[in-house]
Amino acid sequence: MIKNELKKFSKIALIVTSLLIVGIIAACGGSSSGADSSEILIDGSSTVFPISQAVAEEFRVDRPEVQIPVGISGTGGGFKRFVEGDIDIADASRPIEESERAQAETNGVGFTEFVIAYDGLSIVINKANDFATCLTVDELKKIWEPRSSVDNWNEVRSEFPDKPLRLYGPDTDSGTFDYFTDAINGKEDASRADYTASSDDNVLVQGVSGDQGAMGYFGFAYYTENSEILNVISVDGGDGCVGPSVTSIKDGSYSPLSRPMFIYVNNYSLQRPEVRDFIEYYLNNAAELAEEVGYVGLSKADYQSQLEGLN
């Protein structure tokens, strides 16, 4: 009788202990973000967003149990969360800065960088604008440099019509803002402040498409997706007018506005099988999916070398 009761007690104790262990494992979790192990958290660049979103959607066809929310807080906003260990992956349209790298190190966040595609930052105007087909880098600087007061198209070039010029662009958390100001104005973050700014490129598309005097800039994918309602300006970087295209971005002739795009992955998160599988899937499919959404893929060898580094 007593032996039977002891056996029952032992079974109950074993079950309770097992449940406690499961609970502790779940609480400790695998992600640096504290997310559920079936969730991969991504945030950052609105420029990189279309690629990461496309990869996430395709990955989940075979792995529907993995939730992959993709945010668009901008490259700077994504890095702020990433270096704190709040997310697994940061989308970035510029390389990580030394100050961000130092903050990650302070917080014990190790990471791996992957180049996933190329972009051609595109200068866009309203569809009704048929005169500003090409601008030099100096003319773009004249418009966008700090303390610029240019607010009419004929101030850009005398033969342009007397029409108000209104500006739209990414906010200061954007990697596109960082890249553009460096490439055009000669210093990162150096820009006039009196323009309509947004972290959402779709807001900028709506602004430029609805304003006949408008000019804006954002990633090539957002232009190709909206080419029926926007015109794109060719840029003369010193070797003649070149517009953004798959060819000119890939061969670098669209200068100085061709650039690489990145994802940064928390190394602790990479220990989780679903995150590692997602990154492998990303690198194996980035070329095709990048071009589907309007960007330019790397060579097979470039993706393969990154895969080998991952393994």
Helix/strand layout:
Layout (H helix, E strand, L loop, with lengths): L1 H27 L13 E3 L4 H14 L12 H8 L6 E4 L5 H9 L4 E10 L1 E5 L7 E3 H8 L8 H4 L9 E5 L4 H11 L10 E3 L2 H9 L4 E5 L1 H6 L4 E7 L4 E2 L3 H6 L6 E9 L6 H20 L7 H11 L1
Parallel strand pairs: 1-2, 5-9, 6-7, 6-8
Antiparallel strand pairs: 2-11, 3-11, 4-8, 4-9, 9-10
Helix pairs in contact: 2-11, 11-12
Overview of the structural elements:
- With 311 residues, the protein is of the alpha/beta class.
- The model is unreliable at 1-36 (pLDDT under 50).
- The strands form two sheets. Strands 4, 5, 6, 7, 8, 9 and 10 form a seven-stranded mixed sheet that branches. Strands 1-2-11-3 form a four-stranded mixed sheet, with helices on both faces.
- Strand 9 and strand 10 (241-242) form a beta hairpin.
- It has helices spanning 2-28, 49-62, 75-82, 98-106, 137-144, 153-156, 175-185, 201-209, 220-225, 246-251, 273-292, 300-310; strands at residues 42-44, 89-92, 111-120, 122-126, 134-136, 166-170, 196-198, 214-218, 230-236, 241-242, 258-266.
- The radius of gyration is 24 Å and the shape is elongated.
- Helix 2 (49-62) crosses helix 11 and helix 11 (273-292) runs antiparallel to helix 12.
- The protein folds into two domains: 30-118 and 260-310, Periplasmic binding protein-like II (D-Maltodextrin-Binding Protein, domain 2, 3-Layer(aba) Sandwich); 122-256, 3-Layer(aba) Sandwich (D-Maltodextrin-Binding Protein, domain 2).
Key traits:
311 residues; alpha/beta; D-Maltodextrin-Binding Protein, domain 2; seven-stranded mixed sheet; four-stranded mixed sheet; 12 helices; 11 strands; disordered N terminus
